[in-house]
Amino acid sequence: MPDYLRREKGAVSKAITDLYTMTGGKFEKEGEENIPESGPFIVICNHFGGGDVQALFKTFKSVDLHFAVAKEMWWNSSTIARWFLKKLRIIPVEESLSNISEKEKEEALNRQGGHGKAVFRRIIDREKQGKAATNIEFVRQAVAVLSRGEAMGIFPEGLWLNPKNGREKKEMKQGYRGVELIAEQYKKLTDEELPIVPTAFIEDDKTGERKIIIGKPLKLSGNDCNLNGTDWCMEHVAEMLPEQQRGYYKNKVEK
Q1: pTM
Q2: In terms of DSSP bridges, do strands 210-214 and 196-203 run parallel, antiparallel, or are they unpaired?
Q3: pLDDT tens-digit readout, 82-141
Q4: Could you report the per-residue pLDDT of 205-226, keeping only the tens digit for each?
């Protein structure tokens, strides 16, 4: 692991996490009884933006929670951004857009500006050349912090695709399968199954009211349907969202 993850969470990191959490504003909580008393576990959540990271930090404050963050978009954007993300003890992951259509990629690209547009263009061009995102180091680091009894926060849908005004249609995209890979590697290392906590972040566009719903922890061995492990877990997230926001998982919830 890199040095910033090897060290215990110090006073500066705690203070910065607390200050960052305060910027997320108010939200309701439902299902707090489903939060494991201690780690390790993975928290998965839909990714519509609007303070979801801060809300999860605040909701799961009893454990050292590490988030996955977009490597090119945020981690490599500046030395200041990287310093800040290290203090939050966040782990970079290489981005992908392979789970959305070419039309959706171009629409997402056109919604970006400046640095974001350049990053999206590089990802799209890379994938056109058949080069997939490689995240061996991310998986290793995630498994390492989990093996210490800590937790990972992951948005399996990947990059937030930035609706222009924040109030356009919000719906789930298909999740990337890193959650499964982490859980499988953790089991190989420890011979134990890793709990995965499905969590939904909901914001009412009319009232601005926000809510976190925490579902019961899952284990991949409980998947008794024909969905892959990630889709099965994400279906549990979708089930807690309003029907119009379930997107890719709408039909799967109905079935």
Answers
A1: 0.94
A2: antiparallel
A3: 999 999 999 999 999 999 999 999 999 998 889 999 999 999 999 999 998 889 999 999
A4: 788 899 999 999 999 999 999 9
